[in-house]
Amino acid sequence: MTDTTTARTIDRSHMQVSDEVAIEISDMNKWYGAFHVLRDIDLTVYRGERIVICGPSGSGKSTLIRCINRLEEHQAGRIVVDGTELSSDLKNIDKIRSEVGMCFQHFNLFPHLTILENCTLAPIWVRKTPKREAEEIAMHFLEKVKIPEQAHKYPGQLSGGQQQRVAIARSLCMKPRIMLFDEPTSALDPEMIKEVLDTMIELAEEGMTMLCVTHEMGFARQVANRVIFMDQGQIVEQNEPEAFFKAPKSDRTKLFLSQILGH
Amino acid sequence: MSDTHAQTVSFVRESMIPQSPPPTGNRGAVLWLRENLFSGWLNILLTLVSLYVIWWALAHTMPWVFNGIWNAGSLSECREIRNATMGEGSSAACWAVLGDRWQQLMFGFYPRELYWRPVLALVIFLAAIAPVLFAQMPRRALWFTALSPFVMFWLLWGGSVWFPVSVGLGFVLGWAAWRALAPLAGNLVAVIVAALLPVIYWLYSAGPLARELEQAVALSIEYVPSQDFGGFMLSFIIGIAGIILSLPLGILLALGRQSDLFIINKISVGFIEIIRGVPLIVWLFTASLLLNYFLPPGTNFDLMLRVIIMVTLFAAAYIAEVVRGGLAALPKGQYEAADALGLDYWKAMRLIILPQALKISIPGIVNTFIGLFKDTTLVVFIGLFDPIGLSNAIRASVEWNGIYWELFVFIGLLFFICCFSMSRYSLYLEKKLQRGHK
After folding, report:
1. SS3 call for A86
2. With a CB-CB cutoff of 8 Å, which residues 134-193 of chain B face chain A?
3. Which residue of A has its CA nearest to B337?
4. Which residues in chain B touch residue A106, judged by CB atoms under 8 angstroms apart?
5. Residue B337: which of A98, A104, A154 has the nearest Cβ?
6. pLDDT tens, position by position, B123-135
7. Which candidate from A69, A157, A163 shows the least CB-CB separation from B340?
8. Strands A76-81 and A84-85
9. Rounded mean pLDDT, A104-108
10. pLDDT at A49 over 50
């Protein structure tokens, strides 16, 4: 299940990590009530990085990336995204959200709007893009994720894989500088996982900064420049994929990898 | 079977089977009858008993309905005609009361020569509501819809045309204030000012302004006081005004109840629970009696307006709970996706959350509207002449003393037509908003 390796070779010419900081998280802590979900998280993401975050369920990996666009609020520490610090100031939050794209496990397309309307909604209402221009942008990205012919259908008429690709296109229409993926393939049938991963690989090839919570270790090996392993709300280990998979250092990581790659 | 079965009969399908229609015996009216009415001894028996009951009920009511007498001046004249033509004691309705008094049932004591005004108002209402109900109508027609309340108000009550104009100016004032302030002082300040400014204007300036304008250019039609309103006209005015005003208020209350802001949340919860927890009739008595004690002496606060306000608040509390159900039914992911795209609260609500939540709530909302419309008959208890009140008044006259069924059948039928249309419209709307399911 976890090793849907893609046969294609990956064009790495645009995959360059610069030394410009995209996201800086320092000493970040979060609690749900009395439960300490995230503990002393320190993470610096440079522009152009492709980071895969993995870990057992309940380890806080989804919560971590949901904190980056403030779908969850952190209680201590700092998160700086593109030079803007996340605070309770609504202006900052809206600014960051419009620059950080996010894809969810369950796609979360708007079922009452057509695919095209799903994609043009935020550009029109948040960026004030004229409708025609927004539609052109939307069609451009729908072509990119290879479903322009579905533009006038409703989400309920599409397969899961197609819906997730629309969700990616919808985020791209806002021209985000960072993309967050929260288990984008976990709700998909095996046949559909590949089409979504292909779309994500293309995005990586263009140099997008990506943070991706996923169990697709094949994707991590091929695309990521850094793999982070989390457990009990902490970053336990992080390394380049090669080293991470070949020679994990912590026992917890070894156990996790043996369990998901073991059969 | 042996264990080697799987090896001995390996199988590869070479062609796929195309889809084919079901066998012919599984369709048609005869099959439907047999399956639904005559599928077994018990069902045959039940079908026959039901048919007998239906026949019996119709046999007793239909002659009364269709032998009805349409031309008579009083109930006793009706009876004489019946005895002469059909024989003593036969069953026949006296529909003549409707012919004699339909104007009263429709308009109450509204001046007879001015009946064209409420009729024209109804036509304007139907034209104004069409673009709201049916998306096929041109969007520009909504401007007419926005203006129509003022025109209808003027037609119904009459008086100076400047009064509705100066009230309407309040809305323009609010809108202008919002447009001017929103870029300068931020949305919240702009909304508060835009809400307060018109209220202050209405309280202090609208009346004098209307009088000034009237003195400058006199433009008025005959004034009809609220006491003269009655019959279905009254039910329609209270019902329609209540329906139209309670929907936005109910939606705001539902959002308020869901809000994280402590004060707004508690105010909404308190309002909903208090209004909903007390019978409508108590609120109507409050409107008719108690408010007079609280208002400064000498204020003439129209009784009908008070009733409309009470009915609106009452229905809004119910709508709020219905809409809250719709909001709760939406998956959390919809809120998150809207947030993640950078939509602010009001845009997320308007574009993403409410269209879906309201669609889910349509049956409940229409249910509340139908209830509200029928509850307008309760105003009879505070001395307004709704159709029930008028039927009492008609019975109090010498000619029609003792007539019950005919009036109630007529009133019931008119209410049924209205409520049934609302119900059909809600089904149409649900079907229209149906999207592909996953």
Report:
1. coil
2. none
3. A108
4. 331, 333
5. A104
6. 999 999 998 888 8
7. A69
8. antiparallel
9. 93
10. yes
CA distance linking residue A37 with residue A52, whole number of Å: 19
By CA distance, what is A171's nearest residue in B?
Answer: B341
Contact B337 A108 (CB under 8 A): yes
Three-state SS at A171: helix
Residue A45, pLDDT score: 94
Crossing angle for the helix pair B262-276 and B303-329, to the nearest 10 degrees: 120
Domains of chain B: 29-63 (no CATH), 101-110+226-437 (1.10.3720.10), 161-221 (no CATH)
Question: Long-range contacts for B390-395 (Cβ within 8 Å, ≥24 apart)?
Answer: B390/B101, B390/B104, B390/B105, B390/B108, B390/B230, B390/B231, B391/B105, B393/B104, B394/B97, B394/B101, B394/B104, B394/B105
pLDDT less than 70: residues of chain B? 1-9, 24-27, 295-300, 436-438
Q: Does B438 touch chain A (CB under 8 A)?
A: yes
- Measured between CB atoms, which of A112, A122, A153 is closest to B343? A122
| pTM as predicted | 0.86
Helix (H, G, I), strand (E, B) or coil at A203: helix
> Mean pLDDT score of chain B, rounded to an integer?
88
- Chain B nearest-CA distance from A97, in A, is 5
Q: Do A111 and B359 touch (CB under 8 A)?
A: no
Q: Which chain B residue has the Cα nearest residue A95?
A: B342
ipTM of the complex: 0.91
CA dist., res. A46 & res. A16, Å (int): 10
